[in-house]
Structure formats: structure tokens, C-alpha cells
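user: can you give me the structure for this one chain? C-alpha cells are fine.
assistant: on it. calling the predictor now.
[tool input]
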Amino acid sequence: MSEIIKTIKLLKRSYKQPIIFHILHSHLSFIISKDKRFVLYDYYDDWTKLLILSASDLKFSVYNLEKKIINFLVENRNTKYFDELILFKLKIILYYILNTQQKSTNMFILFELMNNYVDTSEETDYYIFSCVSKHVMCNIFGIKLFKFVQKDAINIFLEKCLKNNSNFLLKSRILPAFIDSNIIPVSFIDFNSDDSLLNLKIFESLCLYAKFTANPSNFKEIIPSSPEFIEIFSLFISKEISDQSTEIKEYNFKEYNLNECLLNNNSLIPFLKNLYNKTEDKDKFISDLKGFIDSVLL
């Protein structure tokens, strides 16, 4: 119990640090799953309960808690300046919604987030876009929901997203929400980055859109124009074809080396340089690194 309380206290102090917050949140999820004596009712603060529910798979009646969320969102929808407490509670809500089973997602909460809380911050937008994309993808994968956000409301939201000057990471999160729409999605034509992780996220999102969109002609309007991406997408499309037909034009597409689809990770060297610059004992750092490399080569 003490470890759970300690982690919650750290979470409350780290909400401004997204990576640290996410690591602590994952740790909270882990220790809750391991604590067989854990009882949610031991916590009397509703926001602490929501934080716990956002990190667990506990079956719990959340009507009163979700009513509290709706009241909070309605009360603050016109706020021009969000103080630290509001931002922290908003983050808890977003983590809670993302952790909720899609068939149980409260549509009033999702609708309120879509309409009144986009542009709060890039981090907030990222999570809201993730929530909306997950909701839309339920249709694609045949997940039955008790209630849906109306398609017209989704389209209005998507039109709003097109007007925002979002970065490419945010665009990658909202792109799946365009799959079930006739609207031409956010564009990646000008995308060009040396960040291998960002490249992977963009590639993943675009492949998802290409595979499931009801409007394939829209895809050519948004694909990055760089030769590298075009080549990778060509390999992806060939693999998709090969899943349906093993032989087309007398060529077996399954012979493609899928390793060619991998994007090189260029982040390791800068990461090591950063560690080297920060370490106090640089000789030991180099010695340990050489020892590791030698052990791999042997």
C-alpha cells in the first residue's frame, strides 16, 4: 500500500514531465496488478481513485466519478488560463479515458474533450486525438459500442483539426480518425525527419490509413514526397497484395525481404554522446562501453 501512495505522490509532482509521468503511471499499473490486497475504497479522494482506475483493470462502479469528470469539464470549458491543478486533473481524465474499455467509454466526456479542450497543450491534444482515433477505429474492427459519437460531430472535429498547425506527431495520432470519413486527411507531404522513432510512428499511422480507408484516392494527397518513404510504402503495398495473392504477374511477392521495410535507428549515437557528456567518470564509461561491445562481438 505504501508503494502505491508513494507513486501517486510522485505522479502529482511530475505532471509537467510527460515522460516521467508516463513511466510512473506504468509503474503504478504494475504495482496495483501485483498487490492482491489492494482495495480502491481505501482511497477517499475521487481524483486519486480516478488516477488509480486510469492505471488498472479494476471493475468498479464509476457513475459518480464520471459525473464528477463531466462537471469538471463543463465548469472549465471556457477557462482562458489553466492552472496546474486543472491541467493535472485533465491529464488524469485523459489517461482514464484511454484506459477505459471502448464499449464503456462515456461519450459525454469524449464529446466535451473534443469540442472544448483541443489546443490546451500539445500533450493534451496528443491524448485527445488518441481517444478520438480509438473510438473511430472501433467501427473498422467491428467493436460493438453502447453509444457512438455522431459522425457529423466527428467530421466537425476533423475539420477543426485540419485548421490547426499541428506538428507531425500530432497528425500521426489523429490520422486514423479520418479512416471512416470522406474528408481529405492531415497532410504529410512535407514530412522529412532524421528522427527514426518519429519516422516509424508516421509510417505506422500512414500504413494503417492506407489499409483501412474507405477513400484510397485520398492517400496520394497526403503521403510524404521523399523517395525513401515512397520506396518503403511500395514494399508495404506489395506485402499487402501478397497476403491476398501469392503470385501476381509471375512474381512471388512473399519473396520480399521485409527487413528492407525497417527504418534505421539513428538515435543511438546521439544518445551515447549525451550520456558521455553527462557522466562524471568518462574513462569508466568508455571502458564499460568497450567491454559491452567486445562481449557482443565474441
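assistant: here you go. Residues 122-140 form the longest helix (19 residues). The two ends are 46 Å apart (CA to CA).
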